[in-house]
């Protein structure tokens, strides 16, 4: 193969992480760019989405989706340009939403590709506020959280891709919104830019007291994506008939199980009984269909109006994806984390 | 007062129980029967319902209702005859559903009384299959459990006042029904009389394996009223999108908190996430209204048809209520427990 042939860089899972992923859990390899067969397209990755759920797929514990195997390309949603097409429905230059993972190029049969408008101002937003994380916020808050005007909605990871949308949606529906975020900059952003009523820093002391002070009427909806100490602080504040949509548990993904402590499972069940709580886990992929089209239309309008604001944390270069992902799991990103792979 | 004056025996809470209530936690005292003031009726208790929730009201831990105070008459639903009336809407001899507690006589303003047909074949059933426990089964299974034909419904306390109705309702809706009950006699009854597909004895060894064998397609709805080891056996069998209506935790009511063990709260939340579970506590008193009338009509028809069967465990004499209640909390009753106070 001549040295000038284009190469495909791929980041694969080199081993299963124990706890927080380490650099050695990833490996960048390089292959020749494959040519599309008849009926296939070759995709050039422009943007790669990094999301907490990916940590779950690196583990072989039972979950809602099959785990990655060692040696597999890391998975992920992408915005791609069709580089070469032998598929009747796509032409070179088309912009598409794909799930082609952590690599420069990928082949596709066209299945699962969603065409994007060619003149999209912010193609990467299709990976965030207008895509899976935004829809996760919409489904979890509106379908499961069912907030009523005047209620208090608390949301973890308040400036993240999901949490920032949850809080702004809850404000649009007339709720008091209390965010929980890591560090004063994120808390300032949640209140000043996103319009939350309050935001509590989970890294500072006395989280439980400060969250209670920010929630004088208790909490009616807690949008959970974090678990751990944040959930512990929320529990005593839950009102009767509180709803807990549950889309993630980022603080637990890297936890080592089996720590000896009082077993609080019976306490949680008792609280669910005495307060008539509804705790409901959900996977956004179960909810696509007409509801997604409704979400797309409404969210586009709200963004155009300025009623929903959106912040991205853009990392340059595929080779920096592992470090950015390790940072994501520790809350180092500020806004929706995407990698610009090519422009 | 002449020696022949009728006396009112009352069972009061003598102290707060620690763990399983003991005889010393109750005291029978005797007072003169009060006379009704203008606008009041005097009720004569015929039947007293004994239900697990009463244990919670003896505790001062925060819950959905105010706790009893030491010296208060034990609370409970009753079927009463109006002994004397100075209320325009009631006449001596009327049969009513009341909440007059563990005593022979009580005064009432009429508020909260429900008139029963004078010729009712089984007045005490208004405390069971046609009353609060039956409605608890109906609300929890149909509104929260939302079973679909072909799904597997598991129910704890399978021959109890609630569980026996849950299982029979689930069969009527085309589900596979797996009961969990204490002892071979109850399990036989659940299968032979109530028509459950299987029933597993939680007192025998290897509960988890036997429950798994009885649930070859996993569990889609688990109707929870028990907690503890039964819940632990159910958890690994829950299917994706399983629903857990939660109306009680009888095994926990007497538990001493704070045992050191692995904290399984994070495990439960992770399971709720990865399996998209819905765990929902409910208090039946939140659901009265049109749904109760629908329940009453349907349940009466099903009983008349023989499609729902009902078993009572009738204890004779108010003075035996404390021992019967202590037995209830340990599963000694077989069917809905009621006390015949007078005939």
UniProtKB/TrEMBL annotation, chains A, B:
InterPro entries: ADH-like_C, ADH_N_2, ER, GroES-like_sf, MDR_fam, NAD(P)-bd_dom_sf. GO terms for molecular function: oxidoreductase activity, acting on the CH-CH group of donors, NAD or NADP as acceptor. Residues 21-339 form the Enoyl reductase (ER) domain. The keyword Oxidoreductase applies. Keywords: Oxidoreductase. SMART domains: PKS_ER (SM00829). The keyword Oxidoreductase applies. It holds the Pfam family ADH_N_2. This is Enoyl reductase (ER) domain-containing protein.
């Amino acid at each position: 193969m001549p040295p000038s042939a284009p190469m495909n860089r791929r980041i694969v899972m080199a081993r299963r992480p124990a706890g927080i992923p380490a650099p050695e859990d990833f490996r960048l390899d390089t292959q020749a760019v494959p040519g599309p067969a008849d009926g296939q397209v070759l995709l050039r990755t422009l943007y790669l989405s990094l999301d907490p759920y990916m940590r779950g797929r690196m583990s072989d514990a039972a979950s809602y989706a099959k785990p990655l195997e060692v040696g597999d390309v890391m998975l992920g949603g992408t915005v791609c340009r069709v580089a070469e097409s032998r598929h009747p429905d796509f032409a070179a230059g088309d912009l598409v939403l794909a799930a082609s993972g952590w690599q420069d190029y990928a082949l596709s049969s066209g299945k699962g590709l969603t065409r994007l408008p060619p003149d999209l101002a912010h193609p990467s937003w299709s990976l965030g506020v207008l895509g899976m994380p935004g829809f996760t916020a919409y489904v979890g808050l509106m379908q499961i959280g069912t907030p009523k005007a005047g209620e208090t909605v608390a949301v973890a990871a308040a400036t993240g891709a999901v949490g920032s949308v949850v809080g702004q949606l809850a404000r649009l529906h007339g709720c008091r919104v209390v965010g929980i975020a890591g560090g004063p900059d994120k808390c300032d952003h949640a209140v000043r830019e996103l319009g939350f009523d309050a935001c509590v820093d989970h890294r500072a002391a006395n989280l439980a007291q400060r969250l209670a002070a920010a929630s004088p009427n208790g909490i009616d909806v807690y949008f959970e994506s974090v678990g751990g100490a944040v959930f512990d602080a929320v529990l005593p504040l839950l009102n009767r008939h509180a709803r807990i949509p549950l889309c993630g548990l980022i603080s637990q993904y890297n936890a080592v199980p089996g720590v000896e402590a009082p077993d609080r499972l019976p306490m949680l069940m008792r609280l669910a009984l005495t307060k008539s709580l509804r705790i409901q886990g959900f996977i956004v992929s179960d909810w696509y269909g007409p509801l997604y089209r409704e979400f797309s239309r409404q969210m586009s309008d709200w963004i155009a109006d300025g009623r929903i604001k959106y912040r991205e944390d853009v990392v340059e270069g595929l080779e920096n994806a592992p470090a950015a992902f390790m940072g994501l799991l520790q809350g180092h990103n500020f806004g929706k984390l995407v990698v610009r792979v090519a422009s």
